[in-house]
């Protein structure tokens, strides 16, 4: 059964093939002693490739190859071996290195004790409309909800199960605050800057409803202060060099970003950290800039040209889910998160903290 085919190396009698990765289960069904046949052919354009030779090995034998001690296999053509008395081999195949790496899943990291640290950032800019006016995106209807609260509930109710203390910082931006009515782009919505934590998603919803009458909606819509705020905590977590904390920032906004250059730069820097950003767009504004930050179609770059290390932004327009079950919104919003967590820790060579060695 064919398990791997290398690329073709042309115009040389001394080819060097690229390293490759193959799942152990595909290679040998997890049986380290199972015979593996390696066959070498001389490539022909017409598809009639000429057989050069072959050898047999096993994963346990191949794993003896290390960077400093390569393994050599004689490439044997049985036909030639039978016909020619002096036949030695048809060449030597050298295996430079073979390693088994364990691939961990999102669940492995969670079961290994990784906590998802959840922060909410809420847009209180004037474009949302007066919260006392039923046309405002911040107007809480007789059912006790609005699009901001729906987004907080949909995402928070799932993420809170991955955080043991369920204490979440909730921040606002784009509003004037009492008593001096200065504009702030990162304020605690419970008005306690030294302890912006709310107890569970209920606590976030209560703090949000309570702060609405005490602030003045203003502007502009600056994202970078809140992105940098969470990035500072994520950067501190990297000093532990363990897979114990991963930060998630949920930004709920009604419109166009005013500080796009600074936000792009902040996201590119955050892409090197254990951090993901979820943006939920409420209302009917043009969210083209948000799609740009969500690097699904192309790599995000900062204004200096620096590329994001990985795609950490997931953007979802709430209007597409207005009439759907809240689980549908949660699924769309959190779709890329498990992969982002695994990708980060894998890139940093960090196994789950309570994992067995491979």
Automatic annotation (TrEMBL):
Any Gene Ontology biological process: cellular response to calcium ion
Places the protein is found: Cell membrane; Cytoplasm; Nucleus
GO cellular component, as recorded: cytoplasm; nucleus; plasma membrane
Pfam families xrefs: C2, Copine
Gene Ontology MF term list: calcium-dependent phospholipid binding; metal ion binding
UniProt keyword annotations, A-Z: Calcium, Cell membrane, Cytoplasm, Membrane, Metal-binding, Nucleus, Repeat
Domain C2: 1-73
Entry keyword Nucleus: yes
PANTHER family recorded: COPINE, COPINE-2
Family of this protein: Belongs to the copine family.
Protein name (record): Copine 2
Originating organism: Gorilla gorilla gorilla
């Amino acid at each position: 059964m064919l398990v791997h085919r290398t690329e073709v190396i042309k115009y040389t009698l001394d080819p060097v093939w690229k390293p490759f990765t193959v799942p152990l289960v595909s290679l040998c069904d997890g049986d380290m002693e199972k015979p593996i046949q390696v066959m070498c052919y001389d490539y022909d354009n017409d598809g009639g490739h000429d057989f050069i030779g072959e050898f047999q090995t096993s994963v346990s034998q191949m794993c003896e190859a290390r960077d400093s001690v390569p393994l050599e296999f004689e490439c044997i053509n049985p036909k030639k071996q039978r016909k020619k008395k002096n036949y030695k081999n048809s060449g030597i195949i050298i295996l430079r290195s073979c390693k088994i790496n364990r691939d961990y899943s999102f669940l492995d990291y969670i079961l290994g004790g990784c906590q998802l640290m959840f922060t909410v950032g809420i847009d209180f800019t004037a474009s949302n409309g007066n919260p006392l006016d039923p046309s405002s995106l911040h107007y809480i209807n007789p059912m006790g909800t609005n699009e901001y609260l729906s987004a907080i509930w949909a995402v928070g109710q799932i993420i809170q199960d991955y955080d043991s203390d369920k204490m979440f910082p909730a921040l606002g931006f784009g509003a004037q605050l009492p008593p001096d009515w200065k504009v702030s782009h990162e304020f605690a919505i419970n008005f306690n800057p030294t302890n912006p934590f709310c107890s569970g998603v209920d606590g976030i919803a209560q703090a949000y409803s309570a702060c609405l009458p005490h602030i003045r909606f203003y502007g502009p819509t600056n994202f970078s202060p809140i992105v940098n705020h969470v990035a500072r905590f994520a950067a501190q977590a990297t000093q532990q060099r363990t897979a114990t904390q991963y930060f998630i920032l949920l930004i709920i906004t009604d419109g166009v970003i005013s500080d796009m250059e600074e936000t792009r730069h902040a996201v590119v820097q955050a892409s090197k950290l254990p951090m993901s950003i979820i943006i939920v767009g409420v209302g009917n504004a043009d969210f083209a800039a948000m799609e740009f930050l969500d690097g699904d179609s192309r790599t995000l770059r900062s204004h200096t040209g620096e590329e994001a290390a990985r795609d950490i932004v997931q953007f979802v327009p709430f209007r597409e889910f207005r009439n759907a079950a809240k689980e549908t919104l949660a699924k769309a919003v959190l779709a890329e998160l498990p992969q982002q967590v695994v990708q980060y820790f894998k890139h940093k060579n960090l196994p789950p903290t309570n994992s067995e060695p491979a």
